[in-house]
Write a structure and sequence with these properties.
about 210 residues; 2 domains; five-stranded antiparallel sheet; elongated
Length: about 210
């Protein structure tokens, strides 16, 4: 493990963007196919009789615009994550807490206020099976005692190991930093960066 002093920044790994980039490119293909076929001289009906109202029929090509916008937004997000230094997507770790940036929004969490971190596995039903995603989360209870997420980090975007291992390693690392901060030992201390996150780490000038 490398030893560094805070503040540091974690930026998304470029190789972690390959799958989402391919996913959003599919929306471009769907949008192009839809709009091309809908604007053809004899658009396919797929076994459904054409609508009697020509005005509504003329709107069919624009339905593909929804897929185009989804793809465009997704690709823009992926490309923003690959910019040097992570100006739009990153996690800053400092003596006073951590800051999570998503596009133009920033959320700062002081170490003394953020709950302990833990790995979380989320299963989603997708076409062709079940997709499993791994996160690092901080849970806190509301006034009724129901646990709710204070923050969620997609560990696989920043770690270079298995996604489940990344979530576990990131949770343990953040908990260690949190403990050091609560005990007043974090300022000026050399901290160890887990091997899986060394490639996504960038030093920052002290604030």
């Amino acid at each position: 493990m490398d030893q560094v002093r805070l503040p540091i920044r974690l930026v998304p790994r470029k190789d972690a963007q390959i799958r989402p980039l391919a996913h959003y490119c599919v929306f471009f293909v769907i949008a192009g196919f839809w709009m091309f076929m809908a604007r053809s001289t004899e658009p396919p009906t797929f076994g459904v009789p054409p609508l009697a109202d020509p005005d509504i029929q003329a709107l069919f090509p624009w339905f593909g615009a929804a897929f185009f916008l989804v793809g465009l937004t997704g690709v823009a997000s992926v490309l923003a994550k690959t910019l040097p230094g992570g100006p739009f997507f990153h996690i800053d770790l400092a003596v006073d807490g951590l800051t999570i940036r998503r596009w133009v929004t920033r959320r700062h969490f002081a170490w003394q206020d953020v709950p302990p971190f833990a790995p979380l596995q989320v299963e989603r039903n997708v076409k062709g099976g079940i997709r499993i995603d791994h996160y690092t989360v901080a849970m806190q209870r509301d006034q009724t005692g129901v646990p709710r997420e204070a923050l969620r980090i997609g560990a696989g975007e920043y770690g270079a190991a298995d996604a489940a291992d990344d979530a576990t390693a990131l949770s343990g690392w953040l908990n260690a930093l949190r403990t050091m901060a609560l005990e007043g030992r974090l300022a000026g201390a050399l901290i160890e960066v887990p091997a899986a996150f060394q490639s996504s780490m960038r030093p920052l000038a002290a604030r």
